[in-house]
Amino acid sequence: MKKKFVQGFAISAMTAALAACGGGGDGDDAAATGSVSVGMADAPIDNVDEVNITVTGVVLKPAGGDKITFEFDEPKSLNLLDLQNGNVASLIEDEEVPAGEYNWIRLMLSDNPDDLNVMIGDAIYTLEVPSGSQTGLKLNTGFTVPAGGDAAFTIDFDVRKSLVEPVGNSADYFLKPSLRLIDNIEVGTLTGTVDSSTIIQTECADSQTYAGAVYVYNGTDVTPDDLGSANEPLVVVPVNEDVNEPGTYTYTNSFIAEGDYTVSYTCDMDELTDDNGEPLDEDLNFIDTQNTSVTAGETTTVNFVGS
Question: How is domain 188-301 classified at the architecture level of CATH?
Answer without folding.
Answer: Sandwich (2.60)
